[in-house]
Amino acid sequence: MHGGLKLQHRPASDIETLPTPPTLRIPIQQHQGPAAPVIVTVGESVVCGQPLSMSTDLRQVPVHASLGGTVTDISRTDITITTNDSCATWQPWQASPLPNPHTQQSYINHFHQRGLVGLGGACFPVAAKIDAHKNTTPTLVINAAECDPDICCDEALLQQCGAAVFDGVAIAMQATAASRCVVFIEQGKKTDTAAMQKLVSDAGLHNTDVVAVPAIYPSGAETQMLSHVSGQRVARNSYNTSPPMISFNIGTCYAMSQSIAAGQPLVARITTVIDHNSRARNFSIPIGTPLSHLAASLGLPDTTALEIFSGGRMMRREITLNSVVTKSHNCIEFTVAQPPVSVRECIRCGLCADACPEKLQPQQLYINAKAHNESALVALNLNSCIECRCCDHVCPSKLPLTALYQQAKTDLAVKHRSKLDADIAKQRFDKRALRLQRLEAQKADRLAAKKDTLSNKKSTSTLNKKQLIEQALQRAQAKKQHIAAPASPTNREADQ
Ligand code: SF4
Ligand code: SF4
Fold first, then answer.
1. Class of domain 96-263
2. Whole-prediction pTM value?
3. Helix 250-261 crosses helix 153-176 at what angle (to 10 degrees)?
4. Does 95 score more than 80 pLDDT?
5. Structural domain boundaries of the chain?
C-alpha cells in the first residue's frame, strides 16, 4: 500500500450489554437503497425480531423490532417503540428455517428477509450483493482488519465469538458459491495468524488463506484489500471487479451465522463506544437505541458540552444527541469539544501526497476544490478519494482537506444528478415533440381521407340525381307518346 499512517490501535475490551432502553426509534431506511414499506400500525404490540417493514425488492431492506413493546409512533422516517422488559431478548418470531436443500436463491431470500446489511459501515444490502454476483464463482474477501485505529468491535467479536464468525464465513462461501476465500487480519492483534488459521480449520474451510497486513492505516479499507487480492488497483465502490470478488466484514459474517443458526434478524450490532475520557468499550446495542440512553448508561456528564461522532478518529462524522444507533454505527465517540484549530496557507510541502493511499494529489485537489474547478477535480480523480483523512493528519497547515473534498464530491454528484435530470427532461421534451408531430400528421391524414370520402359521396349523389331525373323524363315522354298515338284496329274491335 502506498502511503498510510502508522497509528496506535486500541486494544479490544469485552462485549457488554446495555440496560434496556425505555424507547427505541428505528429508522425505516438504514441501508444504501430505498426503504421497504412499513407493515405495522400505531398501537400494535411487537416482539423482538418481528418485521416492521417488508419488501420483495432486494434493494429495500426490511427493519425489525430490536426489542419487544408497543408501536407508539410511525413517522416518515422512523418507527417508535415503547419497550417492554419481558420482550427484551430475541424470540424466534415466526422464524422459518432456511429451506433444504440450500440454494443460492434461498440464501438470498433468507438474508433479505432478516434485514442483513454490511456491518463494516457502508450498509450495502447483503442479499443484493450476493445476487449481483449470482452467475460467477467469486473470491470471497473477509475483512477482519479494523480500518480505523479507534474501532475495536470486530476484534472483540473475534475474541468472544470467533467460532460463530467462521461458521458465518463458511455460510458466506456457500451462499456466494465462492471458489476461494482470503481473510485479512492486521498484524499485532491478539487474534493473530495462528489463531485465525485454527478458526479456519475448525470451521472446515477449504481454499482459505489468512493474510496479515501491516497495521498501517487504512490497510483495512475495502479498496485496499480488493486491490491486494486482484493485484491491480480497484476503484472505490467498484462491485464489478475482474476477477470477481465479493467482500464481507466479519460482523456481517457473524450476523449471517446467527440468521441461519437461530433465524435471527439483524436486531443488534456490536459497537465501540468511546467516552469523554477516551475510554473505549464494546457494547451489543439494539438497533434504534437513542444516543441519550447510551450517554446516560455510560454516566456521561453534561452532554450539551460534548461533541458526538460516528466512526473512529480518522473517518468520523459529527452526529447529534438526538440520533439513534443504526446498523451502520461501528463506533460512537463522545468527546469534549475542542477549540477550533487555526488554519494557515498551504506551503506545498507534498506531505499529503506521500500519505495518500490512493496516490492522489491532495494539494491539487484542495486548490481546485476551493476554486470549484469541476473539470480539474474530475481529471484529478476526486471520486477515488476514500476520505481516509491521512492528508489532514499530516498537513502542517491544518487544512481541512477531506471536508473540502466531501463538499466537492457532493457538489459534483448534485451537478451530475442535475445533468442527468436535464438530459432526461430533454429526451422527454423531444419525445413529446415527435409524438405531437405524429398526431398532427395523423390528424391531417384523417381530414384528407374524410374530404375524399365526402367529395366521392357528393359526386355519387349528384350522379344519382341526374340519373333519376333522366329516368323520370323518359317515363313522362313515354306516357305522352302513348296518349298521342291513334287507336290500332285491334283496339277498335275491342271497343265495339
Ligand atoms: S500537506 Fe498541507 S501544506 Fe503540505 S502540500 Fe499538502 S495541503 Fe499543502
Ligand atoms: S482523504 Fe482522500 S486525498 Fe486525502 S489521503 Fe485519503 S484518499 Fe488521499
1. alpha beta
2. 0.81
3. 60
4. no
5. 96-263, 280-336, 351-450
